[in-house]
Amino acid sequence: MTIKEIFDTMDYGPAPESSAEALAWLADRGGIAGHYINGKWGALRDDFATTNPATGVKLAGVTKGTADEVALAVAAARKAQPAWAKSGHKRARVLYAIARLMQKHSRLLAVMETLDNGKPIRESRDIDVPLAIRHFYHHAGFAQLMKAELPDRAALGVCGQIIPWNFPLLMLAWKIAPALAMGNTVVLKPAEYTPLTAMIFAEICTEAGVPPGVVNIITGDGETGAALVESDVDKIAFTGSTEVGRKIREATAGSGKALSLELGGKSPYIVFEDADLDSAVEGLVDAIWFNQGQVCCAGSRLLVQEGIADKFYTKLKSRMDGLRIGDPLDKCIDVGAIVDPVQLAQITKMVDANTEGEIYQTKAPEGCFYPPTLITGLSPASTLMQEEIFGPVLVATTFRTPSEAVEIANNTRYGLAASVWSENINLALDIAPKLVAGIVWINGTNMMDAAAGFGGVRESGFGREGGWEGLAGYTKPKGTHKPLEKIEAFTTQDGHPADPLDRTAKLYIGGKQSRPDGGYSNPVFSPRGKLLGHTSVANRKDIRNAVEACNAAKGWSKTTGHLRAQILYYIAENLSARTDEFATRINNMTGKRSGADEVETAIRTLFTYAAWADKYDGQAHGVPIRGVALAMKEPVGTIGVLCDDAAPLAGLVNAMAPAIAMGNRVVLVASEPFPLAASDFYQVLETSDVPAGVVNIITGSHAQLAPTLAKHLDIDAIWSFSSTDLSAQIEKASAGNLKRTWVNNGQALSPTTKEYLTAATEVKNIWIPYGE
Amino acid sequence: MQTTQSSTLTTQQLPQLHEARNEGMPLDLDWVMAVQANTSAIERRAQTLPGRRSVKKDYQAAWLCKAVSLMDLTTLSGDDSEGRVRRLCAKARQPVSQHILEALGMEGLTTGAICVYHDMVATAVDALQGTNIPVAAVSTGFPAGLSPFHLRIAEIGDSVAAGAQEIDIVISRRHVLTGNWQALYDEMREMRAACGDAHVKAILATGELGTLRNVARASLVCMMAGADFIKTSTGKEPVNATLPVTLTMIRAIRDYQDRTGIKVGYKPAGGISKAKDALVYLSMIKDELGDRWLQPDLFRFGASSLLGDIERQLEHHVTGAYSAQWRHAIG
Questions:
Q1: What is the value of pTM for the model shown?
Q2: Does A307 touch chain B (CB under 8 A)?
Q3: Domain B24-53+116-302 maps to which CATH number in 3.30.70.940, 3.30.450.20, 3.20.20.70, 3.20.20.80?
């Protein structure tokens, strides 16, 4: 076209970014991506190819890591770890050097990312790479501050990290930066489709003076990942699909390996009628057409208030028409290529299978591209409203009221992120805490930063990456634990009652003492063989009833910390009045003389968490926008606990007090050998204004009840301090709804107050950009 | 024969497209009050746009020529004189050196208009005789708009009588700041009437309106009252045209068109001095309003120093060598 013709049409024309330097970089290194172990390259084999999805052309051969190679890398990491953990300042210097070097190579990283992944160069250049660099700068600071600010925490050891293909470099940074900052060493496996920026990063590590073995990279596919999960690491950090996350949960169950999972999502994008509609439309471009919709936190579920829906859809369609889709290396492209034909086929299949609503699609070029798509008129029951598509496909429905918006938004197995658009601060700040999600953006979307935690709830996984809250996932409390012996109940053949007046110990469910569903009771004997009483033997239906009681007590989570503190003090007061009775009961059951001390401990514990109930504050993170990210501490929900067997009263209170102080509802399974202190405790709860259903106490066999608790899809977390060896079973069964687990792995834990508080809360980051 | 061809070319470059003129509509306060503008979101869009849109090589040259054709070449200084204005008009006729235009195949390119104070209108009209370049006059007590109302209205009439085809009026900012939309509407209506057949551009002085929400609402009220163009600034406010303000105003234009079918023009003024900035503005207009707005009847840059930078970029495009300011004729 002549300039005159362009003058008339005003087309954009091509604006290509050169791939020459990146391709030369690959050629110079033999065109093979492979392992970086102990600071050296190798093995390097052409086991399979990584291609440019936009063109289908092979970029490099990729080495498929074997279990032996994984073991070599883990051994190198293991060897390097103690020295690396010694000096936070030294680590800070190295992390800072990494950040600086990434900046120096930023264009190479951006172009390589776009070649390998198919994302627009605008995104890799302006978002992925700068955010990755920012992560290393920010965590250099955490390394520097660790000794002073986290004096009770130590590195986990060796971390196995498995990252996805949608943000190869950024996810690498999210995994490696906090691990290194806290003194861990890592073995990282980049995704099968996208190993190339990790190769550049490995070179940067060498240049930055990262000691050999501190950062190891193993390329490969799912089998390599599985070998890493099985290897001798202390933690697995995984970002990827919920399906694979579930497998990893099962595989690591009972191994003692720490686990963090950042999984899928179907994040709601809620537009109220008073929103700035044009800005909300533009937000959707960044929500669902960012990275071709291949974003775990993509705002993929549009909920629009009914009265403005038509207007909003019209604006949205017109905006979609303006999206430019094509060559990802073109600097004027909004939507690039889908990462691989396999993914393209998956998206196509899901959308083609849909028969509901109305579909609006723009055009896409031939090849591995999928057009921006909007499907309106769906209902929550539609498959596409529930299943993650992981492509540039937005599905939409309408709502009438704020509460209906929340109801539809939370009607999902996932809980990663959410967006709320409204110009009414009252409305927006009311809705944000009600959304079940780890991240909420008000009048924005897909805002991420190293200073703010990222991660979800429900089947979107657990653990946070970024911010102070992210450091918990890469540290453990200092100190070691002793193995926990199984504590057996005392038995006898012909015990006589210690107290001729029979007292009936039922179960405590929904604020009432109720008989067990099964109708069986067990005798409890003293060490000398005296019959102390009977306890109810709970079964799975009693667990079901207790969880339903927890659900009926949801209001507890919305009470003020002040109120919860008052009730905890009141429990302590009423317990204190009956100190002698409880002390005697404990002594009778255990045959020891520590009863009075244990009651005193329980009262102190109640005071401690009453104190914390209104003081465990959230944070306002300093994110680089005009605005704040509020890290709010929220209750986890319903927590099932297998209580400490050794301390019949204090063990129960240790779990109950922090849980309810933070607004959770609990199902407590009492000490199995010594259950009568727990059943005596019903009366204390009944006289202390604890609302019905907030605390439910069950007695019975830990081994029999644990699977029901662990499998229950409406329990959000399970803690086990039981002396029965149940950790593996619990963690495996928890994979069903990916509930958070905190198990003792056969160790006698003595958790700190902060550990309890952390376990009893989720951190939700609410991003509030402001400015008029 | 040659003359005919030449005039055809001129017509092509400045297409005399005829959109229905904005006759306005009754003031719809419900609509005005429902208008929202989320500053942070608007800023984010504005901030990321330059990274999302890029025009290179021939396309860039063509876009820069387009920017020239959309330029209200402006002088609004206390020391303007007849000679100064004639010099500027000569530059409007030949904004870029002939040899560069020939190399680009863009002979006959002129600026969109000349923009001057009332006293310079007659001079400008005379200097531009034989061209299609209209003369725009700033009016109504520009830039503050605080002279007696009857004088402001009279000033419009005088400028039209002197040959101005476009009148850039300033609104009373206090009506916006006090939420007196009726007063703003009435004022604008009366000014529009005083313009007669001359097109009226409403200068909102956005740098003095406090918030983007006010900018959006004032834009809408002025369009309801019949503005043919809405314009950001006088160039005399501390902050003049910005991308967030532009986005806010052109979204109001889009909403007005959606509701009434009428296309209203947009003119950012002040603060746009780099060729690169002009390209970003054009991208924003293209993406948010569409190609139809990239014509002088619906879009103008109010600028005085932008042309110089564009000339250097165009010479670079032709020669491959970076240019120098003194190689290009001043206006």
A1: 0.96
A2: no
A3: 3.20.20.70
